[in-house]
Amino acid sequence: MKHIVVVGAGQAASALAFKLRALKHTGAITLIGDEPDLPYQRPPLSKAYLLGDMTRERLFLRPQSAYDEADIAVRMGGAVTAIDPGARRLTVGDEQVDYDTLVLTTGSSPIRLPAQIGGDLKGVYCVRTLGDIDAMAPHFATGKRALIVGGGYIGLEAAAVAAKLGLNVTVVEMAERILQRVASPQTADYFRALHQSHGVNILEGVGLAKLMGDTEVTQAVLSDGQTLDVDFVIAGIGIRPNTALAQSAGLTIDNGISTDAFGKTSVADIWAAGDCASFPLGEARIRLESVPNAIDQAEAVAANIMGANAPYVAKPWFWSDQYDVKLQIAGLNTGYDAVVTRSGDKPGAVSHWYYRGVNLLAVDAMNAPREFMVGKRLIEAGKSPAPDMIASPDTALKSLL
Ligand SMILES: Cc1cc2nc3c(=O)[nH]c(=O)nc-3n(C[C@H](O)[C@H](O)[C@H](O)COP(=O)(O)OP(=O)(O)OC[C@H]3O[C@@H](n4cnc5c(N)ncnc54)[C@H](O)[C@@H]3O)c2cc1C
Question: Which fold has domain 324-400?
């Protein structure tokens, strides 16, 4: 019976292992992860868990007993440092582990602020792991001064939690505006106004020049020369896929571990899924950093390992929670040339619909779950209603399906 080994024990790994059992793989399954804890969900780290609204226990995707019952071996606390594809063997610490089939679900790592500008001072944090949050949590007390570097979703979610807990929060975004890489000016305007209404100081077109302090950060110097006194700093400046292990084993890397539409890498019997993997979507090669993709792609790979021979068809969607606003995004807005606004029926409810020419690409729905659901279904079906139909309050959305 085949021994399937999964390297990286996070969202994708857990989904993959249980899908293999559901599809009646009867051989051994081993998950190997370098974090101390069983696989857990990351989204609450910058939302309910950071806010103190969710217990640690509820973060775990499944309890140890579920892995035991499914006969899935989980080895935490040790990184895989080498793969020998010829011998089908891995190195973990000073041990060797043999595999028949290997899946890489190594996720991604946050980009850190360089040490030359004070990124290695105490009090400077990233938001990726449970350990990161537990380390920064003591700073989340009323009146503390937080500097968030980067106005993307992670930074803005951390800013929302900090503001809710009564901290003095400044967000610096080097680009012209927050959410520049991921959303339209209209969506950025919405979230800027939301944060400002909660007292967050949002500085755009301003970078971080340097962090100051003896051992612990006490001050930030910004690119426009102004200085801010700070008690701690959170960097939310993007992530990079964890590809070093795959690269050293000779796998092709192209904006992530390169896979075909089935999840196979360039090396026999090695597959990849989740944040670390790039895959073809139409003419393009993309990598998605989201829970829905980690789960769906991992399950597709499990099915293909079991012989399904079915290409993975991504149905991108994502969410973000800030204050009492739930943002839901369907589709990918890459290459949009127009944005249509549809007002919702409650204050603060609005959706932004991205078009390229006549084609609907994506929807950002703020407290507008119906718009999200309809937009998602339209995009998945390849339907593109005329923009003025979307904008008109007289259009019953469901009639567009
Ligand atoms: C704070 C935060 C908030 C988020 N919010 C959202 C959200 O609202 N909605 C959404 O859709 N997505 C969100 N995401 C993204 C989502 O969590 C990720 O896309 C998802 O976790 C990816 O799953 P994965 O299994 O690919 O990687 P991960 O869950 O990161 O798992 C990869 C694991 O592999 C381990 N690993 C790496 N290399 C090795 C090695 N050599 N040996 C052993 N182990 C290794 C890593 O340490 C990690 O534990 C958020 C992410 C973060 C950090």
Answer: Enolase-like; domain 1 (3.30.390)
